[in-house]
Design a protein that fits this description.
mainly alpha
Length: 91
């Protein structure tokens, strides 16, 4: 069985950075600017605004999923370390 070495402190710091990045992403306002007029240029600007809004939603979800994944990894490692140390104490 291979040993997995990870720095819990570094992992926690990266999780915090992801949380900060998520907060920055959520703070970005991508609401479409109200434009008057008609024509293809206005239609394209509206589509661009919609795409930016979708990118924001998807990027925020990706960051949130990454936070959850790395938090679970960290928790699993902490539990495994505690279990391993308990087994050593019992020997």
């Amino acid at each position: 069985m291979k040993e997995i070495n990870a720095n819990i402190v570094a992992l926690s710091a990266k999780i915090q950075k992801l949380r900060e990045l998520k907060a920055k992403c959520e703070a970005i306002d991508v609401t479409a600017v109200t434009v008057s007029g008609s024509g293809q240029s206005i239609s394209n600007l509206t589509l661009i605004d919609q795409e930016y809004a979708l990118i924001k939603v998807e990027l925020t979800a990706l960051i949130d999923n990454s936070i959850g994944f790395f938090t679970n990894v960290r928790s699993s490692m902490v539990v495994a370390d505690k279990k391993a140390s308990g087994e050593i104490l019992l020997q």
